[in-house]
Amino acid sequence: MRDFSPLTLIMMMIIINLSVTQLNYIKLAFGFDPTEGFISLPLNQSNFVIQSPYDVPQNQRYSFVQGVHRLWIYSFDKPHSPISKTSPRTEIRIHGYDYSSGVWQFEGYAYVPHGTSGVCIMQVFGASPNHATTLMLRVYNGSLTYYRTPVLVADIYDRWFRVNVVHDVEASDVKVYIDGVLTYHAPGRGGTSHYFKCGVYAQKDSSYLMESRWKGIKVLKKCDY
Fold first, then answer.
1. Rounded CA gap, 13 and 7, in Å?
2. In this predicted model, what pLDDT tens digit does every residue of 50-63 receive, in sequence order?
3. Would you put residue 118 in left (φ > 0), alpha (ψ -120 to 50) or beta?
4. DSSP E strands: which ranges in the chain?
5. Cis peptide before 88 (omega within 30 of 0)
6. What whole-number distance in Å separates Cα of residue 59 and Cα of residue 61?
7. Whole-number Å distance between alpha carbons of 121 and 119
8. Keywords assigned by UniProt (predicted)?
9. Average model confidence (pLDDT) across the chain
């Protein structure tokens, strides 16, 4: 049996007792990248379909300046279609990369101004008939949440943060990384077709004005080695 020095034994005990979050931060410090093993797919403005209140000119709810998508709505806004019964939204619907199998990833840098609340800022659309979405990232009073709960990050107002969402369809598995750190691991919700969306989509108890900004948006697919 191998003998370990006292220092080695102490280090082993420290590693064993580290929490998952602490281990994730260690990975980040040593250059862990959630996009490793994925291929970034080509995107241009034609892939960004804007869904905004149907009765308002798009430029009154969306702008794209110097690489930053700014999307906003008011609580009194109409839905994105005259026949829709859903809440108001201004969202980017990623077009051209709908998927039904494989491992896919969304990446983007998000910014949520102070005061925005009761809103979904990113979603994986598509699920079994009992659900519309596989994942929603929402903001309530400055906290980033998975649906309504749990809280993933307690204070995200007024700063840029990196969002990576990995969806493994066959494994029915979803992982959420914020600033490179795995913050939530959830089961999938079934469904036969999925796509990514980001922006603002009003939820219950929404604020009067809701806004998010996005830059560096990417869609990635797991390499098939």
1. 10
2. 999 999 999 999 99
3. left
4. 38-40, 48-51, 62-65, 68-74, 89-94, 103-111, 119-125, 133-140, 143-146, 151-153, 160-168, 173-178, 181-187, 195-202, 209-222
5. no
6. 5
7. 6
8. Lyase, Membrane, Transmembrane, Transmembrane helix
9. 90
- Give CA separation, 202 vs 77, 120, 169, 190, in Å: 10, 6, 27, 24
Show me where the domains of the chain are located. Answer: 1-30, 34-222
Decide which of 225 and 38 is more confident: 38
Please state the rounded mean pLDDT for residues 143-171.
97
Burial of 106 (0-12, 13-18, 19+ CB in 10 A): buried
Q: Length of the chain, please?
A: 225
**For the domain bounded by 34-222, which CATH number is listed?**
2.60.120.200
Q: By C-alpha distance, which of 198, 175, 185, 214 is closest to 122?
A: 198
